[in-house]
UniProtKB/TrEMBL annotation:
<dbReference type="InterPro" id="IPR019533">
    <property type="entry name" value="Peptidase_S26"/>
</dbReference>
<dbReference type="GO" id="GO:0009003">
    <property type="term" value="F:signal peptidase activity"/>
</dbReference>
<dbReference type="GO" id="GO:0004252">
    <property type="term" value="F:serine-type endopeptidase activity"/>
</dbReference>
<protein>
    <recommendedName>
        <fullName>Signal peptidase I</fullName>
        <ecNumber>3.4.21.89</ecNumber>
    </recommendedName>
</protein>
<feature type="active site">
    <location>
        <position position="97"/>
    </location>
</feature>
<keyword id="KW-0645">Protease</keyword>
<dbReference type="GO" id="GO:0006465">
    <property type="term" value="P:signal peptide processing"/>
</dbReference>
<dbReference type="InterPro" id="IPR000223">
    <property type="entry name" value="Pept_S26A_signal_pept_1"/>
</dbReference>
<keyword id="KW-0378">Hydrolase</keyword>
<feature type="domain" description="Peptidase S26">
    <location>
        <begin position="11"/>
        <end position="184"/>
    </location>
</feature>
<dbReference type="InterPro" id="IPR019758">
    <property type="entry name" value="Pept_S26A_signal_pept_1_CS"/>
</dbReference>
<dbReference type="GO" id="GO:0016020">
    <property type="term" value="C:membrane"/>
</dbReference>
<comment type="similarity">
    <text>Belongs to the peptidase S26 family.</text>
</comment>
<dbReference type="InterPro" id="IPR036286">
    <property type="entry name" value="LexA/Signal_pep-like_sf"/>
</dbReference>
<feature type="active site">
    <location>
        <position position="42"/>
    </location>
</feature>
<dbReference type="InterPro" id="IPR019757">
    <property type="entry name" value="Pept_S26A_signal_pept_1_Lys-AS"/>
</dbReference>
<dbReference type="Pfam" id="PF10502">
    <property type="entry name" value="Peptidase_S26"/>
</dbReference>
Length: 193
């Protein structure tokens, strides 16, 4: 009798573990939230190398795997959001940058300041940094118009970031979600702004 109870307990444990794995890999990760590790210093000081972050996939409408379909979004991406997206030049890589230009915006970098639609970005996430004129999409004195269904993104560490200044725009379909919280290491736990 004890052997049957033991086998029943093992079976229940295996079923619970299988169900938890199904939820994690088939529901939570693709549609709700996903963990990422920051590999470089391109988002310093907001994000440091090795930070582990959680990215909300449902906020912009999660992509249904193996299709071009998206679930309904809670809101559209907005200027200042820190987003994770599929790198336009290598679809096997995910990148993280700050959203600067929305579809139809005119973006220019002048004397270290970002101008959108001829107005300087003065919010705290933008005015505390110096942005360099580098790459084909941020030449001095040149204004770039963000195409429809695309976004212009920059790293917070402008001197050490390969971003829209170099390779252009992020297609809307490449956006995976918004970075919402640093959860590791413990001394850096915080909401990402």
């Amino acid at each position: 009798m004890k052997g049957a109870k033991f086998k029943s307990a093992i079976r229940e444990w295996i079923e619970a573990a299988a169900f938890a794995a199904f939820l994690a890999f088939c529901i939570i990760r693709p549609f709700v939230i996903q963990a990422f590790k920051i590999p470089s210093g391109s988002m310093r000081p907001t994000l440091l190398e090795g930070d582990l972050i959680l990215v909300s996939k449902f906020i912009y409408g999660a992509k249904v795997p193996f299709t071009n379909f998206r679930l309904p979004a809670l809101r559209k991406p907005k200027r200042g959001d820190v987003i994770v997206f599929i790198y336009p030049e290598d679809i096997k890589k995910d990148f993280i940058k700050r959203l600067v230009g929305l579809p139809g915006d005119t973006v220019e970098i002048e004397s270290g300041t970002i101008y959108v639609n001829n107005k300087p970005l003065l919010g705290p996430v933008f005015n505390q940094r110096y942005y360099y004129n580098r790459g084909d999409f941020a030449k001095e004195g040149e204004k770039i118009v963000v195409p429809e269904n695309s976004f212009f993104v920059l790293g917070d560490n402008s001197g050490s970031s390969k971003d829209s200044r170099y390779w252009g725009f992020v297609p809307k379909d490449n956006i995976l979600g918004e970075a919402v919280v640093i959860y590791w290491p413990p001394q850096r736990i915080r909401i990402i702004k």
